[in-house]
From TrEMBL:
InterPro entries: GDSL, GDSL_lipolytic_enzyme, Lipase_GDSL_AS, SGNH_hydro_sf, SGNH_plant_lipase-like
A cellular-component GO term for this protein: extracellular region
GO biological process, one term: lipid metabolic process
Keywords: Signal
Record-linked CDD domains: SGNH_plant_lipase_like
Family, per entry: Belongs to the 'GDSL' lipolytic enzyme family.
Signal peptide start-end: 1-22
Protein name, per record: SGNH hydrolase-type esterase domain-containing protein
Entries under Gene3D superfamilies matching the protein: SGNH hydrolase
One Gene Ontology term of the molecular function aspect: lipase activity
Pfam families: Lipase_GDSL
Length: 340
Protein backbone atom coordinates (compact mmCIF):
# COMPACT_ATOMS: atom_id res chain seq x y z
CA UNK A 1 0.00 0.00 0.00
CA UNK A 2 2.85 2.37 0.84
CA UNK A 3 4.32 1.74 -2.59
CA UNK A 4 0.98 2.48 -4.31
CA UNK A 5 0.52 5.62 -2.23
CA UNK A 6 4.01 6.79 -3.10
CA UNK A 7 3.40 6.26 -6.80
CA UNK A 8 0.11 8.11 -6.53
CA UNK A 9 1.81 11.07 -4.86
CA UNK A 10 4.52 11.09 -7.51
CA UNK A 11 1.86 11.24 -10.23
CA UNK A 12 0.06 14.08 -8.43
CA UNK A 13 3.31 15.98 -8.00
CA UNK A 14 4.13 15.50 -11.68
CA UNK A 15 0.71 16.82 -12.71
CA UNK A 16 1.06 19.79 -10.35
CA UNK A 17 4.49 20.67 -11.76
CA UNK A 18 3.11 20.39 -15.29
CA UNK A 19 0.33 22.81 -14.42
CA UNK A 20 2.81 25.24 -12.86
CA UNK A 21 4.96 25.04 -15.99
CA UNK A 22 1.94 25.72 -18.20
CA UNK A 23 1.03 28.75 -16.12
CA UNK A 24 4.59 30.06 -16.17
CA UNK A 25 5.05 29.60 -19.91
CA UNK A 26 1.52 30.65 -20.87
CA UNK A 27 2.09 34.35 -20.24
CA UNK A 28 0.84 35.25 -23.70
CA UNK A 29 -2.78 34.54 -24.67
CA UNK A 30 -2.15 34.40 -28.41
CA UNK A 31 0.31 34.57 -31.28
CA UNK A 32 -0.24 36.59 -34.46
CA UNK A 33 2.20 35.87 -37.29
CA UNK A 34 2.83 38.16 -40.26
CA UNK A 35 5.23 38.06 -43.17
CA UNK A 36 6.63 35.29 -45.34
CA UNK A 37 7.18 31.55 -45.67
CA UNK A 38 9.24 31.27 -42.50
CA UNK A 39 5.93 31.68 -40.65
CA UNK A 40 3.24 30.84 -43.25
CA UNK A 41 1.07 27.90 -42.20
CA UNK A 42 -1.08 27.64 -45.34
CA UNK A 43 -2.41 31.02 -46.46
CA UNK A 44 -1.28 30.50 -50.07
CA UNK A 45 -3.24 27.29 -50.60
CA UNK A 46 -6.15 28.91 -52.43
CA UNK A 47 -4.12 31.54 -54.29
CA UNK A 48 -3.23 31.40 -57.98
CA UNK A 49 0.50 31.18 -57.34
CA UNK A 50 3.39 28.78 -57.76
CA UNK A 51 4.48 29.69 -54.23
CA UNK A 52 2.61 26.80 -52.67
CA UNK A 53 3.53 23.82 -50.59
CA UNK A 54 0.24 21.99 -50.06
CA UNK A 55 1.50 18.89 -51.84
CA UNK A 56 3.88 16.05 -51.10
CA UNK A 57 6.69 15.73 -50.17
CA UNK A 58 6.01 18.90 -48.11
CA UNK A 59 4.57 17.94 -44.75
CA UNK A 60 6.30 14.56 -44.81
CA UNK A 61 7.09 14.82 -41.09
CA UNK A 62 3.94 16.73 -40.16
CA UNK A 63 1.35 14.83 -38.07
CA UNK A 64 -0.30 12.20 -40.31
CA UNK A 65 2.10 13.26 -43.11
CA UNK A 66 -0.30 15.96 -44.34
CA UNK A 67 0.96 18.74 -46.65
CA UNK A 68 -0.80 21.72 -45.10
CA UNK A 69 0.82 24.55 -47.04
CA UNK A 70 3.71 24.95 -44.63
CA UNK A 71 7.01 25.46 -46.43
CA UNK A 72 8.90 22.60 -44.83
CA UNK A 73 8.92 18.95 -43.92
CA UNK A 74 6.93 19.54 -40.73
CA UNK A 75 6.03 22.43 -38.49
CA UNK A 76 7.42 25.88 -39.20
CA UNK A 77 8.80 28.55 -36.92
CA UNK A 78 5.46 30.14 -36.00
CA UNK A 79 4.17 26.76 -34.75
CA UNK A 80 7.30 26.10 -32.73
CA UNK A 81 7.40 29.56 -31.15
CA UNK A 82 3.74 29.23 -30.16
CA UNK A 83 4.47 25.86 -28.55
CA UNK A 84 7.59 27.17 -26.82
CA UNK A 85 5.60 30.02 -25.30
CA UNK A 86 2.91 27.67 -24.05
CA UNK A 87 0.20 28.97 -26.39
CA UNK A 88 -0.53 26.01 -28.68
CA UNK A 89 1.25 23.48 -30.87
CA UNK A 90 -0.06 24.56 -34.27
CA UNK A 91 -0.92 28.04 -35.53
CA UNK A 92 -3.74 27.88 -38.09
CA UNK A 93 -3.66 29.91 -41.29
CA UNK A 94 -6.27 32.67 -41.21
CA UNK A 95 -7.32 31.90 -44.78
CA UNK A 96 -7.66 28.18 -44.14
CA UNK A 97 -11.03 26.64 -44.96
CA UNK A 98 -10.61 24.53 -41.83
CA UNK A 99 -10.09 27.41 -39.39
CA UNK A 100 -12.28 26.96 -36.30
CA UNK A 101 -13.68 29.99 -34.51
CA UNK A 102 -12.50 28.47 -31.25
CA UNK A 103 -8.90 28.92 -32.48
CA UNK A 104 -9.23 32.69 -32.86
CA UNK A 105 -8.58 33.70 -29.21
CA UNK A 106 -5.18 31.97 -29.21
CA UNK A 107 -4.10 33.47 -32.51
CA UNK A 108 -3.64 32.74 -36.19
CA UNK A 109 -1.13 33.20 -38.99
CA UNK A 110 -1.48 35.86 -41.69
CA UNK A 111 1.92 35.29 -43.32
CA UNK A 112 2.18 34.42 -47.00
CA UNK A 113 5.06 32.49 -48.54
CA UNK A 114 6.98 34.59 -51.07
CA UNK A 115 5.72 37.89 -49.69
CA UNK A 116 7.67 40.95 -48.68
CA UNK A 117 7.56 44.58 -47.68
CA UNK A 118 7.93 45.65 -51.31
CA UNK A 119 4.63 45.30 -53.16
CA UNK A 120 6.61 44.21 -56.24
CA UNK A 121 7.90 41.18 -54.31
CA UNK A 122 4.38 39.93 -53.61
CA UNK A 123 2.94 40.86 -57.00
CA UNK A 124 5.49 38.92 -59.08
CA UNK A 125 4.54 35.76 -57.17
CA UNK A 126 0.83 36.43 -56.75
CA UNK A 127 0.88 36.22 -52.96
CA UNK A 128 -0.41 38.37 -50.09
CA UNK A 129 1.59 41.57 -49.71
CA UNK A 130 2.63 42.24 -46.12
CA UNK A 131 0.63 45.48 -46.02
CA UNK A 132 -2.47 43.61 -47.27
CA UNK A 133 -2.10 41.15 -44.41
CA UNK A 134 -3.38 44.01 -42.25
CA UNK A 135 -6.73 43.69 -44.05
CA UNK A 136 -6.87 40.08 -42.93
CA UNK A 137 -5.93 41.20 -39.42
CA UNK A 138 -8.86 43.65 -39.40
CA UNK A 139 -11.15 40.83 -40.49
CA UNK A 140 -9.68 38.66 -37.74
CA UNK A 141 -10.48 41.31 -35.12
CA UNK A 142 -14.10 41.36 -36.28
CA UNK A 143 -14.36 37.56 -36.12
CA UNK A 144 -12.62 37.51 -32.75
CA UNK A 145 -15.16 40.01 -31.44
CA UNK A 146 -17.98 37.73 -32.56
CA UNK A 147 -16.33 34.73 -30.91
CA UNK A 148 -15.43 36.43 -27.62
CA UNK A 149 -18.39 38.79 -27.39
CA UNK A 150 -16.56 41.27 -25.19
CA UNK A 151 -14.79 44.32 -26.64
CA UNK A 152 -12.54 44.70 -23.60
CA UNK A 153 -11.46 41.05 -23.83
CA UNK A 154 -10.69 41.41 -27.54
CA UNK A 155 -8.52 44.44 -26.83
CA UNK A 156 -6.74 42.54 -24.05
CA UNK A 157 -6.00 39.54 -26.26
CA UNK A 158 -4.54 41.66 -29.05
CA UNK A 159 -2.53 43.86 -26.68
CA UNK A 160 -0.96 40.83 -24.98
CA UNK A 161 -0.50 38.62 -28.04
CA UNK A 162 2.99 38.06 -29.41
CA UNK A 163 3.13 39.66 -32.85
CA UNK A 164 5.73 37.70 -34.80
CA UNK A 165 7.01 39.39 -37.97
CA UNK A 166 9.29 37.94 -40.65
CA UNK A 167 9.63 40.22 -43.67
CA UNK A 168 12.54 41.18 -45.90
CA UNK A 169 13.91 37.78 -46.90
CA UNK A 170 12.24 37.76 -50.32
CA UNK A 171 12.73 41.47 -50.92
CA UNK A 172 16.49 41.10 -50.63
CA UNK A 173 17.06 37.59 -52.00
CA UNK A 174 14.61 37.78 -54.92
CA UNK A 175 13.54 41.34 -55.70
CA UNK A 176 16.92 42.99 -55.24
CA UNK A 177 19.52 40.33 -56.03
CA UNK A 178 17.64 38.01 -58.42
CA UNK A 179 15.91 40.62 -60.60
CA UNK A 180 17.13 43.77 -62.32
CA UNK A 181 14.04 45.84 -61.53
CA UNK A 182 15.29 47.43 -58.32
CA UNK A 183 18.99 47.73 -59.19
CA UNK A 184 18.11 50.33 -61.79
CA UNK A 185 16.80 52.63 -59.04
CA UNK A 186 18.58 51.54 -55.86
CA UNK A 187 21.80 50.25 -54.40
CA UNK A 188 21.65 47.95 -51.38
CA UNK A 189 21.87 50.84 -48.91
CA UNK A 190 19.04 52.84 -50.43
CA UNK A 191 16.87 49.78 -51.05
CA UNK A 192 17.16 48.61 -47.45
CA UNK A 193 16.36 52.15 -46.34
CA UNK A 194 13.17 51.91 -48.38
CA UNK A 195 12.37 48.53 -46.84
CA UNK A 196 12.75 50.04 -43.38
CA UNK A 197 10.33 52.84 -44.29
CA UNK A 198 7.74 50.27 -45.35
CA UNK A 199 8.40 48.18 -42.25
CA UNK A 200 7.98 51.25 -40.04
CA UNK A 201 4.58 51.97 -41.57
CA UNK A 202 3.53 48.34 -41.21
CA UNK A 203 4.49 48.12 -37.54
CA UNK A 204 2.93 51.50 -36.75
CA UNK A 205 -0.33 50.34 -38.34
CA UNK A 206 -0.27 47.17 -36.23
CA UNK A 207 0.31 49.29 -33.15
CA UNK A 208 -2.59 51.56 -34.11
CA UNK A 209 -4.78 48.46 -34.39
CA UNK A 210 -3.99 47.47 -30.80
CA UNK A 211 -0.86 45.31 -30.98
CA UNK A 212 1.68 45.99 -28.24
CA UNK A 213 4.14 43.08 -28.12
CA UNK A 214 6.36 42.76 -31.19
CA UNK A 215 8.98 40.10 -31.95
CA UNK A 216 10.67 41.23 -35.17
CA UNK A 217 12.80 38.68 -36.99
CA UNK A 218 15.83 39.59 -39.03
CA UNK A 219 16.47 37.76 -42.30
CA UNK A 220 18.20 34.41 -42.62
CA UNK A 221 21.79 34.30 -43.95
CA UNK A 222 20.35 34.53 -47.45
CA UNK A 223 23.61 33.91 -49.27
CA UNK A 224 23.88 30.52 -47.57
CA UNK A 225 20.50 29.20 -48.67
CA UNK A 226 20.87 26.18 -50.96
CA UNK A 227 19.28 28.07 -53.85
CA UNK A 228 21.92 30.79 -53.54
CA UNK A 229 24.83 28.42 -53.01
CA UNK A 230 24.00 26.56 -56.22
CA UNK A 231 25.15 29.66 -58.08
CA UNK A 232 28.64 29.08 -56.68
CA UNK A 233 28.58 25.38 -57.43
CA UNK A 234 27.61 24.69 -53.81
CA UNK A 235 31.10 25.72 -52.73
CA UNK A 236 30.54 28.88 -50.68
CA UNK A 237 27.84 31.18 -49.38
CA UNK A 238 27.33 34.21 -51.64
CA UNK A 239 29.10 37.02 -49.75
CA UNK A 240 27.36 39.92 -51.49
CA UNK A 241 23.92 38.51 -50.66
CA UNK A 242 24.88 37.93 -47.03
CA UNK A 243 26.29 41.46 -46.93
CA UNK A 244 22.93 42.81 -48.06
CA UNK A 245 21.13 40.76 -45.42
CA UNK A 246 23.45 42.07 -42.69
CA UNK A 247 22.93 45.68 -43.75
CA UNK A 248 19.16 45.21 -43.59
CA UNK A 249 19.24 43.34 -40.29
CA UNK A 250 21.22 46.07 -38.58
CA UNK A 251 18.66 48.60 -39.72
CA UNK A 252 15.83 46.41 -38.44
CA UNK A 253 17.56 46.12 -35.05
CA UNK A 254 17.90 49.91 -34.96
CA UNK A 255 14.25 50.32 -35.90
CA UNK A 256 13.20 48.12 -32.99
CA UNK A 257 15.18 50.36 -30.63
CA UNK A 258 13.46 53.45 -32.06
CA UNK A 259 10.02 51.92 -31.55
CA UNK A 260 10.96 50.97 -28.00
CA UNK A 261 11.94 54.56 -27.28
CA UNK A 262 9.03 56.29 -29.01
CA UNK A 263 6.22 53.97 -27.88
CA UNK A 264 6.92 53.16 -24.22
CA UNK A 265 3.60 51.38 -23.70
CA UNK A 266 4.65 48.85 -26.32
CA UNK A 267 7.30 46.14 -26.11
CA UNK A 268 9.61 45.44 -29.03
CA UNK A 269 12.37 42.90 -29.46
CA UNK A 270 14.67 42.04 -32.36
CA UNK A 271 15.25 38.34 -33.11
CA UNK A 272 18.63 37.59 -34.71
CA UNK A 273 17.88 34.81 -37.19
CA UNK A 274 21.00 35.46 -39.26
CA UNK A 275 23.73 34.53 -36.78
CA UNK A 276 21.81 31.78 -35.01
CA UNK A 277 21.11 29.90 -38.25
CA UNK A 278 24.56 30.68 -39.64
CA UNK A 279 26.10 28.85 -36.69
CA UNK A 280 23.98 25.81 -37.51
CA UNK A 281 25.03 26.01 -41.17
CA UNK A 282 28.74 26.32 -40.35
CA UNK A 283 28.68 23.69 -37.59
CA UNK A 284 26.01 21.16 -38.60
CA UNK A 285 27.39 18.25 -36.56
CA UNK A 286 27.27 20.39 -33.42
CA UNK A 287 23.47 20.42 -33.78
CA UNK A 288 23.06 16.81 -34.89
CA UNK A 289 23.00 17.35 -38.66
CA UNK A 290 25.02 15.58 -41.31
CA UNK A 291 25.08 18.45 -43.79
CA UNK A 292 24.00 22.02 -44.48
CA UNK A 293 24.31 21.35 -48.22
CA UNK A 294 22.58 20.23 -50.29
CA UNK A 295 18.98 20.50 -49.14
CA UNK A 296 16.86 17.43 -48.56
CA UNK A 297 14.40 18.16 -51.36
CA UNK A 298 14.94 20.26 -54.49
CA UNK A 299 14.05 20.41 -58.18
CA UNK A 300 17.44 18.82 -58.83
CA UNK A 301 16.56 15.92 -56.53
CA UNK A 302 12.78 15.45 -56.83
CA UNK A 303 12.94 12.43 -54.56
CA UNK A 304 13.70 13.82 -51.10
CA UNK A 305 16.40 12.45 -48.85
CA UNK A 306 15.45 9.57 -46.61
CA UNK A 307 16.23 11.41 -43.38
CA UNK A 308 15.23 15.08 -43.34
CA UNK A 309 16.62 15.31 -39.81
CA UNK A 310 20.14 14.99 -41.19
CA UNK A 311 19.79 18.15 -43.30
CA UNK A 312 19.76 21.75 -42.12
CA UNK A 313 17.62 22.71 -45.11
CA UNK A 314 14.47 21.02 -46.31
CA UNK A 315 14.34 22.71 -49.72
CA UNK A 316 16.18 25.43 -51.67
CA UNK A 317 15.15 28.21 -49.26
CA UNK A 318 13.65 26.76 -46.09
CA UNK A 319 15.20 25.19 -43.00
CA UNK A 320 13.97 21.81 -41.83
CA UNK A 321 11.83 21.54 -38.71
CA UNK A 322 14.85 20.25 -36.83
CA UNK A 323 16.87 23.32 -37.87
CA UNK A 324 14.13 25.61 -36.59
CA UNK A 325 14.19 23.69 -33.32
CA UNK A 326 17.95 24.22 -33.10
CA UNK A 327 17.53 28.00 -33.01
CA UNK A 328 14.24 27.98 -31.10
CA UNK A 329 15.45 28.08 -27.46
CA UNK A 330 17.09 31.48 -27.85
CA UNK A 331 14.03 32.89 -29.65
CA UNK A 332 11.66 31.72 -26.94
CA UNK A 333 13.99 32.97 -24.21
CA UNK A 334 14.26 36.45 -25.76
CA UNK A 335 10.50 36.76 -26.25
CA UNK A 336 9.73 35.46 -22.76
CA UNK A 337 12.21 37.79 -21.07
CA UNK A 338 11.60 40.94 -23.13
CA UNK A 339 7.89 40.86 -23.98
CA UNK A 340 6.25 39.37 -20.89
Amino acid sequence: MDCIATKFLVVLLSLWLSCIHAIQTGRFPAILAFGDSILDTGNNNKLMTVSKSNFLPYGRNFPYHIPTGRFGNGRVLSDLVAEGLGIKNLVPAFRSSFLKSSELPTGVCFASGGSGLDKFTASIQGVIWVQDQLKDFQSYIQKLSQEVGDAAKVKEIIANAVVLISAGNNDIAITFFATRAKKLRYNIETYTDQLIEWKTTFMQNLYNMGARKFAVLGTLPLGCLPGARQLSGDLICLPHVNHGAKIYNQKVANLVVKFRQSLPDGKFVYIDMYNSLLDVIENPSKYGFRTAKPCCCSVMTPVPCLDSGSHVFWDFAHPSEKAYKAVLPNIVSVISNKLA
